[in-house]
């Protein structure tokens, strides 16, 4: 088992930035591929970004490419998502996800591939 706790969400304005963080505890963090997903009201959960076990391989959704950066610190058991130039389409509940795997393919874009999830941190926009 691994427990995931997200933080860093909040109220933002268009063009603003946020840094979301996910803290993991439990089994060896280095064994997990980590991902970020988001879900807006009335919509399905969608892939945002993922990072391989060592941090050397990263994947970012086209919808946030150029605005989002995923990173991890295996010494601190954390994975972060830096998002810049935010727009209302980025609003939603952001989830951290983990999958213990030494190999991965396009399955990592699928929420169903991941075994562990946090409770989410919410990003909302001020008018």
List keywords for this structure.
127 residues; mainly beta; 4-stranded antiparallel sheet; 11 strands; 0% helix
Average pLDDT over all residues: 95
Low-confidence stretches: none
What structural class should be given to the helix and strand makeup?
Answer: mainly beta
- Helical amount: under 10%
The helix count comes to 0
Estimated radius of gyration: 14 Å
Number of strands: 11
Distance between the termini: 40 Å
Largest sheet: 7 strands, mixed
- Run of helices and strands: EEEEEEEEEEE
Shape: globular
Which range does the strand content fall in?
A: over 45%
Briefly, what is this?
The chain is mainly β.
Helices, strands, pairings?
Layout: E1 2-7, E2 10-12, E3 18-26, E4 32-39, E5 46-51, E6 58-60, E7 68-73, E8 78-83, E9 92-100, E10 116-117, E11 121-125
Parallel strand pairs: 2-11
Antiparallel strand pairs: 1-3, 3-8, 4-5, 4-9, 5-6, 7-8, 9-10, 9-11
